[in-house]
Amino acid sequence: MTMNTEPSEETHFGYRRVPVNEKRAHVRSVFDSVADRYDLMNDVMSLGIHRLWKAMTLHLAGIRPGDYCLDLATGTGDLAAEMSRRVGDKGLVIASDINQAMLSRGRNRLIDKGLLANLRYIQADAEALPFASNRFDAITMAFGLRNVTDKARALQSLQRILKPGAALFILEFSKPVSPLLAKIYDQYSFSLLPAMGRLLAGDGDSYRYLAESIRMHPDQETLRSMMLEAGFDRCDYYNLSGGIVALHKACKY
C-alpha cells in the first residue's frame, strides 16, 4: 500500500524547515532541556487535565491482567505506571522512549513508586521498533507522535508489532472544534506557554517549539486516514476538551 510521507530532504521542526537527518537531534535537545521540569509543566500547562486525558486512554485500552503492553514515548511514565498495576504479576509493560533523559527520569520515578517487577525500559525509535511482529496486546502513545520525523513509517511499525485483535491508542494534541476556542488556544499557546516555560523551566524556546509542533501535527481526520493507510483495519477518534486533544483508537484484525 502506498503511503504519503514527508519530503525526503526536509521536514518541519515546529515552523522551521530542517534537514530530515537533523530533526531527531533538535527534538532530543528540546526534551533534554525540559526533562527535569516536565511533570510540573504538564500540570501547570493543562491545569492538571492531562491526568483525565490519560485516564480516558487507559479506560478505553481495557488492559487486563497478564497482558503484554507497550507505552511508547513514555516520558516520565504516567501511563506505564498504571499499565503496570493493571497487567499484574503475569503481565509485562515495556516503557520506551527515544530520549534517554526522559526515559531515565521516568524509570527513576517509577522505581520510587515501587514499580519494578513487570516493567522494562527500552530506548527506541518509533520509526523502527525493535520488537517482534504481532507481539503486543495494547500500545499507547501519549503526546509523542507529533515529534516523530516520519509519522507514516512510525504507524506502520506500530501496526506490525500489534497483535491481531488488539488496538493502538494515540493521545495527542489536535485541532479545536470551535473557532472561538481555537483563537483562545492560539493566544494561550504562543503567549502564555512560552512565558511559563521561561518562568518555571528556564526555557521559553522549547515551549514555543512544542506549541508550533502541535499546529503542524495532522488534524483528527488526517491522522485517522494515516492510520488506515498504515494497515489498521478500523480507526475511531474521540475529541477531548473541545478537540484540544484527540484520542485515536486504531484496531488491527
Descriptive overview:
Helix 2 (about 40-45) packs antiparallel against helix 7 (about 180-200), helix 3 packs parallel to helix 4 and helix 7 (about 180-200) runs antiparallel to helix 8 (about 205-215). The chain contains 9 helices and 9 strands. It is of the alpha/beta class and about 250 residues long. The protein has one domain (about 10-180, about 205-250): Rossmann fold. The chain is globular, with a radius of gyration of 17 Å. The model is unreliable at about 1-5 (pLDDT under 50). The chain has a 7-stranded mixed sheet with strand order 5-4-3-6-7-9-8, sandwiched between helices. Strands 1-2 form a two-stranded antiparallel sheet.
Main sheet record? 7 strands, mixed
CATH superfamily: Vaccinia Virus protein VP39
Order of helices and strands: EEHHHEHEHEEHEHHHEE
Report how far apart the termini are. Answer: 17 Å
Beta-strand content: 15-25%
Shape: globular
How many strands?
Answer: 9
Put simply, the count of helices is 9
Q: What is the CATH architecture term?
A: 3-Layer(aba) Sandwich
Uncertain ranges = 1-7
Radius of gyration: 17 Å
Overall CATH class: Alpha Beta
The structural class is alpha/beta
What is the secondary structure topology, with strand pairs?
Blueprint: E1 10-13, E2 16-19, H1 20-34, H2 38-46, H3 50-61, E3 68-72, H4 78-87, E4 92-97, H5 100-112, E5 119-123, E6 136-142, H6 151-161, E7 162-173, H7 179-201, H8 204-216, H9 220-229, E8 234-240, E9 245-252
Helix pairs in contact: 2-7, 3-4, 7-8
